[in-house]
Every structure is written in C-alpha cells, then in structure tokens.
C-alpha cells in the first residue's frame, strides 16, 4: 500500500506488519572463532578497562582488524544481510530486484561475564543490525547457572506487540499478543540479523568462558539511482 491514497482490499483476513529477522550460521566458525577471540582479547587489552565483567569496544572494528579470516567473516556478514534484507523486502522492492550495496556502518564487540548485561535498546542511523556470537559457554554449562538458568546470556528481542501489553489484559482473543518477546540462545558461529528498530537486550551472563559478541549496523542502498521507491503524499 502506498501513503498517497486508499487501496482496494480484498475480503478476507489480514496478517499485517511482521518482524523480519534472519538466523545464519558461519561454516568457518569452529575454525576461525578462536582466532577472533584472541584478536578481540588483544584489542581489549589495549583499550581503557571497563567495569568488572563487561567491556564494549569502539565501533571501529572494520578498520582495526586486517586478517584474511576477517575478510571472510565480513563477506559472511554481508551475504547474510543481503539474504535477510532481500527476503524482508520481497513484496516492497520492484521486480526485478535492484542491485544492492550493503554498507556496514559500524562494528564493535562486547565481552560479558560475572552477571553483566546490556539493557534494552535499539540502534540508530541504520536500517539493519546484527549480532554474531564468537564465544560463550557450552549449552549444558550455560543453562546450569543456578540463578540465571536458561536465560543465561541469551539475547532477548521485544516485538512490536510488546508495548501493547500495557494493562495486561489477557484472554483467548488476544493470545496472539502474548508471545511478545523472543529469547535466542547464544551459539558460537550464529549471526542474528534484525531490523534496527527492534528493541533488544543482552540478558545477564555468567560463565566459565566470557561471552564475546560482535555487533554491527548496516544500511542498504540501490547500486544505482535513489533508494526511495515512493514519494510522500501531501498532508
Ligand atoms: Fe544492540
């Protein structure tokens, strides 16, 4: 539907405004993640120390790491973004789909342990974001934490229905609202691509090994010409 007028809508049921996300696994992860963990550890050692159990780097990883394996990782990130963004826009882009330029707008890493978390937030100045898991405790050990249990170190995403739960009225008629968030367990080699507007948080983590993640922001542009498919209607 455009913003310039009313469109005819066929009789029937509508299921509007989904939240597109992509879950990708890097085939080289088992081989390269230990190297990435060492490189990120040395970058952390050169930076100002953060609070106990938590470190967040500057968002300049794209420029700071120069390894062939890093180029492979960036290729995986861009290919994964491309796949998820194309799927998300399949009904919105013209046919045939335009050539794309995927721009990584910033990349950084975070290290957490000792119960550290990263509170609810969204990402700005970009259309897509992602989080890649470099290292975390193995699943049985991770979920065995006596306090945090299965929530230990997960990434929690809050869907667009979440703010509609105010008042907490729940009945069978709005059961579809009640799965308002999704916890995704950390898994080394797993990349989650999500819209930048999607609120999320890194839940508290405690483990034998640090939880190390790489995060990024991206924008997606037409290879030629402008990005805007539609004009805006006059008020
Ligand atoms: Fe984030």
What does this entry show, briefly?
With 235 residues, this protein is an alpha+beta fold.
Tell me, rounded to a whole number, the average pLDDT.
Answer: 92
SSE order in H/E notation?
Answer: EHEHHEEEHEEEEE
Bound molecules: fe (ii) ion
Largest sheet: 6 strands, antiparallel
Number of helices: 4
- CATH fold description: Jelly Rolls
Radius of gyration: 20 Å
The assigned CATH architecture is Sandwich
- CATH class reads Mainly Beta
Number of strands: 10
Could you name the ranges where pLDDT drops below 50 across 5 or more consecutive residues? Answer: none
Within CATH, the superfamily carries the name q2cbj1_9rhob like domain
The rounded distance between the terminal residues' Cα atoms is 17 Å
The proportion of residues in beta strands is 25-35%
Verbal overview:
With 235 residues, the protein is α+β, with helices and mostly antiparallel strands. The chain has one domain (22-91, 101-160, 179-222): Jelly Rolls (Sandwich), CATH 2.60.120.620. Helix content is 20%, strand content 29%. The protein has helices at residues 29-46, 61-64, 68-88, 139-143; strands spanning 22-25, 54-56, 100-112, 116-121, 128-135, 155-158, 181-184, 190-195, 199-205, 211-222. The strands form two sheets. Strands 1-8-5-10-3-2 form a six-stranded antiparallel beta sheet. Strands 4-9-6-7 form a four-stranded antiparallel beta sheet, with no helix packed on it. The radius of gyration is 20 Å and the shape is globular. The structure holds fe (ii) ion. Fe (ii) ion binds at residues 121, 123, 200, 215.
């Amino acid at each position: 539907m455009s913003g310039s007028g009313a469109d005819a809508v066929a009789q029937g049921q509508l299921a509007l405004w989904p939240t597109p996300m992509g879950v990708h696994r890097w085939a080289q992860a088992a081989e390269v993640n230990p190297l990435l963990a060492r490189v990120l550890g040395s970058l952390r050692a050169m930076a100002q120390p953060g609070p106990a159990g938590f470190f967040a780097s500057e968002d300049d990883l794209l420029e700071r790491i120069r390894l062939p394996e890093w180029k492979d990782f960036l290729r995986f990130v861009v290919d994964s973004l491309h796949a998820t963004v194309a799927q998300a826009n399949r009904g919105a882009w013209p046919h045939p789909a335009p050539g794309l330029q995927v721009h990584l707008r910033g990349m950084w890493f975070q290290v957490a342990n000792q119960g550290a978390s990263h509170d609810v937030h969204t990402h700005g100045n970009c259309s897509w974001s992602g989080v890649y898991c470099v290292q975390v405790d193995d699943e049985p050990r991770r979920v065995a934490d006596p306090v945090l249990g299965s929530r230990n170190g997960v990434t929690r995403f809050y869907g667009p229905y979440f703010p509609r739960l105010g008042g907490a009225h729940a009945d069978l008629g709005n059961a579809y609202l009640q799965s308002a968030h999704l916890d995704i367990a950390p898994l080394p080699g797993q990349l989650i691509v999500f819209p930048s507007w999607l609120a999320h948080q890194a839940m508290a983590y405690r483990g034998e090994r640090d939880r190390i993640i790489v995060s990024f922001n991206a924008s997606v542009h037409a290879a030629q010409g402008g990005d805007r498919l539609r004009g805006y209607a006059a008020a």
